[in-house]
Amino acid sequence: MTSRIPRDSRLRLVRAQSPRAERRAGAERGTARPLTAPGAVTQQRARRPAPRPPEGTPAPGELARMARQGLADAVTVARWADRSLRPGRSRPGAPDANAGAPDARGGRGTLLAETAERAAAELALTPDQVRADWDTARLAGLIEVHGDSARPGWRLRAWDRDDAAVLRGWVALFDAWSLTHAASRELAPATVAETVEAMPQLLTLLQLSAGPVPVAQLLDLLDQRVTELRTERCEIPYGPQPEPVDPTETPPLATLLDWALRGLAAVGALTYADGQATLTPLGSWAVWVKLEQICVAAQSPAGNIEQSAEDMLRGCARLRPNAARSEYRAWLAARPVGSAVTELLDAARGEDALLRGLAFEALRVVGAPAESEVRAVVDETPLRPYALIWLAEQEGADPEDVHLVLTRDESTWLWVDTAAAVADHGETHLLIRHLESAVQPTVPALLDEVRRIGHPRTVQVLVALAAAHPDPALAKAVRRAAFQVHTGGV
């Protein structure tokens, strides 16, 4: 007998089983899905031994020592800020502890003038040196800027004991080399961007050469790569065009190359003197790591390096988390961080909810360098729940409690968005399990809130859920809710 009143079914929050537990349960039931079944993915990779760095590369401990030495000044400023600017540590008559907050008027992340002068006096440095070391500390993750405040990063806490954290911090600085040594305002932004995009090829040449490379040879390669980039864009002008630009007014590539090599030398990636450039041990190791990531992905079943962000995410959709993260790392290693983050966020804005979730998984691999771009999309409704969770994770929130940063409506929006991804790409039983993960305690409460939030995929999600659920009364209630949303009823 079927009641017209929706059952007040209690929803249970279930914890996902560990992969080992799932395999054990499947073996006991004898229902393990064959690899050839629909939805199954062949992901077994032939395990290869861990790649060995080129001969002569120092051990990780020695590389970490070099990184600590190169970042010593930045660490000093970061620790001074931790000691002196933490709330509650101001001395009588001293500047306000909040003076260490980034100056919104001068650009987020910059120190207030009085704070820089105070640090300079206490550390026997000049204010300009303090600002430069502060910027280096931010780029290396020693200081994390969150909105209008700054605080010590987790890498600073682990600096003396964790070699891996030190090396990751240095690589983050290496990736941001173009920010540490700003280009002259006389250089056109477009030509600067082309140079930055071309530098991975020049760094690869330096790494493979394993020794000094004449600047003339690097200049020839830069010329070739910039020409390729302009050809790939195939820019065809339309409409009336201005007079051709005098070639003498275009900054020569030699000037751009000089700026790039000085920037890389400033972060300790190479030495630049006497018309030659040579990678330092740290620089050689970092470039080798990125090349290795690209080679691993090129040998993988997915091989998404050359794809757009959207196609790459689709290619990773059925990979297991570890395999997907390897693909993300390789894809990111093959392009500048800034453009990669922009492309991922553009993919997240699309209609496919699955790609939205995967884009933020890829942004987790990017980490701190993506923070400003992620923070900028917080006000975009489709991206807001994902962005808030991502930012909370970056700020060190407990993974078990990270969902608490969302309001009830934001949690419901995320539930519907995830349900849309499951309905489009998953299987029936996954949609039913997703129902049990809702924050609402009952089905009627869930349906009421789902109707209210106005997610564009609400009707499709409810129809799919009604078709999948084995309880006739609950399915009927869900179908009624879908009809009400579709007709604009209450």
Automatic annotation (TrEMBL):
Compositionally biased tracts (Basic and acidic residues): 1-11, 20-31
Domain of life: Bacteria
Compositional bias ranges of the Low complexity kind: 91-108
Chain residue ranges for the region called Disordered: 1-62, 81-108
Protein name: Uncharacterized protein
Provenance organism: Streptomyces durmitorensis
